[in-house]
Amino acid sequence: MGWIIAIVAVVVLVLIYFSMYNGLVKYRNWVDEAWAQIDVQLKRRYDLIPNLVETVKGYAKHEQETLAKVVELRNQLGEKSNRQDQMAVNDQLSGALKNLFALREAYPDLKANENFKMLQEELTQTENKVAYSRQLYNNTVMKYNTKIESVPTNIIASVHHFEKRDMLEARAEERENVRVSF
């Protein structure tokens, strides 16, 4: 009778171990999937930028520096291999796109151009989706990291080399107070 209890206890422990391991795998995959969602939105933005640049070129011929910066940053995206470098370039690209949209005030005809309006709306929606995807990624990473650091899954995580993931952070200039002047 004692050996039956021992076998049942071992089976229960093995099932608990498998359950915790599978939970870690699930969270790790959720982190990867959340990153893939960011990547999808960044690819969408990447594809929209040439159309926007071509539309603006016709109106803002002497604003080549702004256009060149947007194109340069877009091209750098393909060169970056790790997530942190990709997000750093994408943050710079967001700033360059804001400058590009600021041009519409200087060019009333551009402001009225249907292609420009449509592309601006598409990019605005994409930027919102990128922001949401970043938020989802950080939330998923937080849950995954918590699982890795919590007892008893931290033991299984260290045995199977589950590693913490870094959250995406706002750049220093995005943390500064917004200055409003009239």
From TrEMBL:
Keyword check for Glycoprotein: no
Subcellular location, principal: membrane
Keyword Transmembrane listed: yes
Compartment(s) where it occurs, according to its Swiss-Prot or TrEMBL record: Membrane
Domain of life: Bacteria
Topology within the bilayer: Single-pass membrane protein
InterPro entries, A to Z: LemA-like_dom_sf (IPR023353), MamQ_LemA (IPR007156)
Transmembrane segments: 6-25
Protein name: LemA family protein
Record organism: Exiguobacterium aestuarii
